[in-house]
């Protein structure tokens, strides 16, 4: 599925703005058969939870409804036209007037529907979207719903961030010609100074008398190469590589041409292409054949009021802060981010570990926090073959959407699954095989949680890179950095000894209350957060296989209000939720930007 774009052959209409809004019960009650009154209205894109001052809306479990009127332009009489949703968290049912036109499960990847046969050009129709935020054992991410004595429904889930819901990304109405390009896949290679782009162009039907023209342009708009094949390769002499911190993007233009009149453009689509290679070799992670050291963060799509609503101003500001502090990369914790984020990373040379929404496949963590007996994570009554099927579909949609982004260098299949528990290998191994089949060009990883140490873990041999989430000095050896430092080093060396693979610290850090200062190692103080980072960095520099460090978290973020151990959210950010720096930022900035800071090679940030 290609992201919609506007050009001479295609038109694009944004449906963002103010929609009418209503709550429903556990099952949709047919609001699409009538006009939803404008007594409640809501902006799109935005999560609905924090927009209003009604707790029933914030904590609602079940279906909500968005509705607006849409007019198909009269000029589209010779076109096909679609409605596209960049995301609906976690399930979206779309109605054109009274007709159900599409039902999609999965809260962070796009879906669309062809409405050409349902709505005539020039016609106005009622567009209703039912969005469901329910999480069950069979969804990704998983959860369960409890019905209370008073009849209210309470959502339980295993992930430590708020279950923001609704239409958090853009909605589009767009047109394409009757015969159009509907898929493009690219893979890039480098041989000395020559680059090669393998491409595969798909169309909605046979081209018959029509022809294809595939053109490649450099950043100055000069033609580099051209062919008429639907599937083939384009060579680039003296190639400009896409590199971390020094992005270079070619433009691949695919055109469908008519023969009468000759070479008239029927359809066109342009795709930015970065030529680069990614490979794991021994204990190194190589980009363009050079060792790469990851510096950066786990993040969240989370801002005040909008929740997970995509906000381009926040996005650009976040990238500016990351660059200022010296970050060259981030992980899309714990779900695929808006595609605009990846486009920005492509353009500015930021490296991305792209993660599915498989967070919470670990019932032992919650049981441990609450002091309960752990329920088996993988069983017929919890995460089972239905969960695995939903997980597989999430992987398919992630790879289909993001496979052409040069910034994406690795797929992360899960965050902190119960990887030392019976059944995990049977669950994960088919998903690893599926991902390698879908994309054999990128390494794979998952984020390992501390309970599954190197001796107990069942699945790390399936993956290319070891990604470890560790909180020595916070959850382990709290307030005692003298004990935390050798403990962390022993842990990392055990992984290095067993697997000899690259190790990325995908989470480390501490909760910190901005403005709390203390002498000595006092948890929650700004000084303690900085001291934990410095202690961790000393260990990373001593362990050869460590090839990256992603602090948890970039910024404070909202968590479930039922978590008594969270006060207005998770405070592990080095920036506050409104992006004000804590003291720890200066520790990172010194390490990541000054020549004397990082002891390991970090070729990427020096080119920014």
UniProtKB/TrEMBL annotation:
Keywords: Glycosidase, Hydrolase. InterPro entries: Beta-gal/glucu_dom_sf, Galactose-bd-like_sf, GH, Glyco_hydro_2, Glyco_hydro_2_cat, Glyco_hydro_2_CS, Glyco_hydro_2_N, Ig-like_fold. Gene3D superfamilies: Galactose-binding domain-like (2.60.120.260), Glycosidases (3.20.20.80), Immunoglobulins (2.60.40.10). Residues 179-276 form the Glycoside hydrolase family 2 immunoglobulin-like beta-sandwich domain. Residues 14-177 form the Glycosyl hydrolases family 2 sugar binding domain. Its EC number is 3.2.1.31. Residues 278-593 form the Glycoside hydrolase family 2 catalytic domain. It comes from the Eukaryota. Pfam families: Glyco_hydro_2, Glyco_hydro_2_C, Glyco_hydro_2_N. It is an enzyme of class 3 (hydrolase). The keyword Hydrolase applies. PROSITE patterns: GLYCOSYL_HYDROL_F2_1 (PS00719). Belongs to the glycosyl hydrolase 2 family. NCBIfam families: PRK10150.1. This is Beta-glucuronidase. It comes from Aspergillus keveii. The lineage of its organism: Eukaryota, Fungi, Dikarya, Ascomycota, Pezizomycotina.
């Amino acid at each position: 599925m290609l992201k919609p774009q506007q050009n001479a052959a295609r038109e694009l209409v944004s449906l963002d703005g103010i929609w009418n809004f209503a709550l429903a019960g556990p099952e949709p009650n047919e609001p699409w058969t009538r006009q939803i009154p404008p007594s409640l209205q809501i902006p799109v894109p935005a999560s609905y939870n924090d927009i209003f001052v009604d707790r029933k809306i914030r904590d609602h479990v079940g279906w909500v409804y968005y509705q607006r009127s849409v007019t198909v332009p009269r000029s589209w009489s010779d076109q096909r036209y679609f409605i596209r949703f960049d995301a609906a968290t976690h399930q979206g049912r779309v109605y054109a007037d009274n007709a159900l036109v599409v039902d999609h499960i999965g809260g962070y990847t796009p879906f669309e529907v062809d409405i050409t046969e349902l709505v005539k050009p020039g016609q106005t129709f009622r567009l209703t979207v039912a969005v469901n935020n329910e999480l069950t054992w069979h969804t990704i991410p998983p959860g369960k719903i409890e019905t209370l004595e008073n009849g209210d429904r309470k959502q339980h889930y295993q992930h430590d961030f708020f279950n923001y819901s609704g239409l958090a990304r853009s909605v589009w109405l767009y047109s394409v010609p009757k015969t159009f390009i509907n898929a493009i896949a690219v893979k890039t290679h480098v041989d000395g100074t020559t680059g090669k782009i393998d491409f595969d162009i798909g169309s909605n039907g046979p081209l018959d008398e029509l022809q294809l023209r595939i053109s490649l342009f450099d950043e100055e708009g000069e033609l580099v190469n051209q062919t008429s094949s639907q599937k083939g390769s384009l060579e680039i002499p003296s190639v400009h590589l896409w590199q971390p911190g020094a992005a270079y993007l070619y433009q691949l233009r695919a055109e469908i041409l008519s023969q009468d009149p000759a070479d008239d453009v029927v359809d066109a689509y342009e795709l930015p292409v970065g030529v680069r290679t990614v490979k794991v070799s021994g204990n190194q992670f190589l980009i363009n054949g050079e060792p790469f050291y990851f510096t950066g963060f786990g993040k969240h799509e989370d801002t005040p009021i909008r929740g997970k609503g995509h906000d381009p101003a926040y996005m650009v500001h976040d990238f500016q802060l990351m660059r200022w502090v010296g970050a060259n990369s981030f992980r899309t914790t714990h779900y695929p981010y808006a595609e605009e984020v990846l486009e920005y990373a492509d353009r500015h040379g930021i490296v991305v570990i792209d993660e599915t929404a498989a967070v919470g496949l670990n019932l032992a963590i919650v049981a441990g926090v609450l002091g309960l007996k752990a329920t088996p994570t993988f069983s017929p009554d919890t995460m089972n073959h239905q969960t695995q099927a939903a997980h597989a579909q999430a992987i398919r949609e992630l790879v289909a959407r993001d496979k052409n982004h040069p910034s994406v260098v690795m797929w992360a299949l899960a965050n902190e699954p119960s990887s030392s528990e019976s059944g995990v290998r049977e669950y994960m191994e088919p998903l690893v095989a599926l991902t390698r089949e879908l994309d054999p060009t990128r390494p794979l990883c998952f984020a390992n949680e501390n309970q599954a140490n190197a001796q107990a873990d069942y699945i790390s041999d399936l993956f290319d890179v070891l990604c470890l989430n560790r909180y020595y000095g916070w959850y382990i050896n709290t307030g005692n950095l003298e004990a935390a430092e050798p403990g962390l080093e022993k842990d990392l060396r055990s992984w290095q000894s067993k697997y000899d693979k690259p190790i990325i610290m995908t989470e480390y850090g501490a909760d910190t209350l901005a403005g709390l200062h203390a002498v000595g190692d006092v948890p929650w103080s700004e000084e303690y957060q900085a001291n934990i980072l410095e202690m961790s960095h000393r260990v990373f520099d001593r362990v050869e296989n460590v090839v990256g460090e992603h602090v948890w978290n970039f910024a404070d973020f909202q968590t479930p209000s039922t978590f008594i151990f969270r006060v207005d959210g998770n405070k592990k950010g080095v920036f506050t939720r409104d992006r004000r720096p804590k003291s720890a930022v200066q520790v990172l900035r010194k390490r990541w930007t000054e020549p004397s800071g990082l002891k390991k090679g970090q070729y990427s940030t020096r080119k920014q």
